[in-house]
Amino acid sequence: AARLADPAARTVALETGQGRLVVLPDGRAVLVLDDLDAAPAGKTYEAWIVEGGTPLPAGIFPGREDRDLVPLEGTVDPGDVVAVTIEDELVATPEGDVIVASESA
User: What is the C-alpha to C-alpha distance for residues 33 and 88, in angstroms, rounded to an integer?
Assistant: First the structure.
């Protein structure tokens, strides 16, 4: 919540999905997702920071029906994109379809 209230934070719109990406000057970021259903049984959502076309794991979360606040592991630099996939388990590279994607940070 503190990251969201930081006056130095900038907001990046999502190209896919509902919500926004909030990025602090030091690159720490929170993905705010609205109306994302819980992940299907046996699945999880996995966030990715995509640097120059290379996706890096940034955390997993189960999803809720109203609002998810997902603090990302790693830093979001200018030009990076944040994406979310549905996976069977924590994976090193995305296997599922991208269901959320930010504009370029």
Answer: 20
DSSP state for residue 2 in the 8-state scheme = H
Q: Per residue in 37-91, pLDDT tens? A: 999 999 999 999 999 999 999 999 999 878 899 999 999 999 999 999 999 988 8
Place of tokens 């992940």: 39
Q: Residue 35: which residues within 8 A CB-CB, separation 6 or more?
A: 18, 65, 66, 67
Beta-sheet strand order (sheet of 81-87) = 54-61, 44-51, 81-87, 98-102, 10-16, 19-23, 29-34, 67-71
The answer on pLDDT for 2 being more than 90 is no
Listed in sequence order, the residues at least 6 apart from 51 whose beta carbon sits closer than 8 Å to its beta carbon are 77, 79, 80
Question: DSSP code of 16?
Answer: E
Using CA atoms, how far residue 63 sits from 34, 45, 53, 59, 79, in Å, is 10, 7, 25, 12, 26
- Whether the full predicted model's pTM is greater than 0.90, yes or no, is yes
